[in-house]
Amino acid sequence: MNDALHNIRIWDDLARRQNAVNNLHPLVKLLTTIFYLIVVVSFGRYEISSLLPLIFYPVVIFSLAELPLGEVLKRIAWAMPFVIGIGIFNPVFDHQTVELLGFTISRGWLTFISILIKCVLTVAAGILLVATTGMERLGAALRMIRVPRVFVLQLLLTYRYISVLGNELARMLRAYSLRAPGQKGIKREAWGSLTGSLLLRSFDRAQRVYAAMCLRGFAGEYNSGAMAKIGAGDLGFLAGWSTFFIMARLYDWPLWLGSLLTGVF
Amino acid sequence: MHMADALISPAVGGAMLAVTAGMAAYSAKKISGDMDEKKIPLMGVMGAFVFAAQMINFTIPATGSSGHLGGGMLLAILLGPYAGFLTMASILLIQALFFGDGGLLAYGCNVFNLGFYTCFIAYPLIYKWFTHRGLTSKNIFWGATISALIALQLGAFSVVLETLASGRTELPFASFVLLMQPIHLAIGLVEGLVTAAVVAFVWKARPEVLEKAAAGEAMGNISIKKVLTGLVVAVVIVGGALSWFASSSPDGLEWSMERIAGTAELEAPAGIHQALSDLQSKTAFMPDYGFKASEEEIVEAAAAEEAAGTWPAVDAGTSVAGLVGGALTLIMAALIGYVISLSKKKGSRAAA
User: Which residues pair with A100 in a beta bridge?
Assistant: First the structure.
């Protein structure tokens, strides 16, 4: 529980550091990420080799931003079960086989691998976006692409209060577990009262929050400070990666490279 | 329940994003028009509340297992449909960004599956119907339980449709439905009972919170007529997008239908009907169908533009080249990453 709260904060701390990737304009990073995701998911089921060059983007960003490998991998692993659960049926339902290096392999396994690669790439791209941008600057980027003010405000407030209410809940759960030793979860009789109490506390807190915000001059806008203009470097980042993504989508570089090598030897 | 990017196609993801963006914009407009700024902190804190509540383990009596709360129905009941929808949308965005729980391209699908059905279908049509004669413990219990249950069933069914329309998995429609619906019936029951328990508790402790929400004062009311109009528009948009996709790419819904029902015709209702009536015989592994459909698919794929890159057309020689090249690509990527971090470390040491 406290681990989960700690985990969500890690990314904000990472995003606050100064480095080449973190200092890029948030809007540019958002657009690059979205374009990357579209390119990745646009690959068909049987295209595996041509999908691989796209791994350059997360690897380069990851290295440039000096992110902790373990945390990123942990987060990717968390996202895998659902995808594996659905994807594992591909080998079950697609028995058509293909020859590969003299081995016979079912096409279902190939499509399963393609899904797994896509999962790793897409989840990595999303994590890299937050880990190098942070929630508040991401909110500012969303405002720039005309996402309604109410939604962005609500998003940022939700994010900000997760840890506050998480701590509240941690205290309640500790109190409960002290009164119900050796019990794994919350029993049926307390479902409503425990969650309901947390809810009412949240309501009260919201009112205090609102009062405090009003006293500090809140007038319906969340001021995140001045945002730097998009510079030439930002545009270069966007243009460079977009070109790379398009080239990776159009040509099968690994196949070409492999043909070259196997042709030579 | 959260859709991942790896399982969807750009067409499906894009169409669903467009639909949910429209609904979110409408909800945001509705809220700004109807309410004062006071409610925004409330929405924010409620979003955080759902996050916290999702971490509670509820012991399920007589099973030894435990369940969690999703929270969509609870938000709709406590905040009203529009604010509930926006709050759910922001929760899902944070989950996608920070936990990799549902992808960014699949974000539209997830908001639709978990936010639309709870706030714009189950709340006005089911919960309101149970409680329109007044709030009593019994009305709240049945209203909250049944609406949460049905909303989750609809959401799970949407997951099936969105996944099949994307054509990334080989799961036949009937098996996928049989896999998803019963699991979510159990999950939905727990969700419904927890929601009912929480709403009942709030109603006893602070009846004014629910009365305000029920009267539409809290966050704006919703008319069923508008919901139905919106639903029809959404169905037309989604249906249009899907049929366009299905006709432009052979490996989408059409292909799934072909496998299950033995017909390539895009009469979805007939296909689904046939699939359901032939359930027992068709959910087997279908060796004949598999072979036939795959052969047809190869022909279709060859006809398609991207045929050059698809697997079945590749011979053994090129597949070796693909493997060698793929391995080299990965090694190069790893090397580049290693060199960058090495130079970074050197740089920071020099700076220190």
Answer: A103
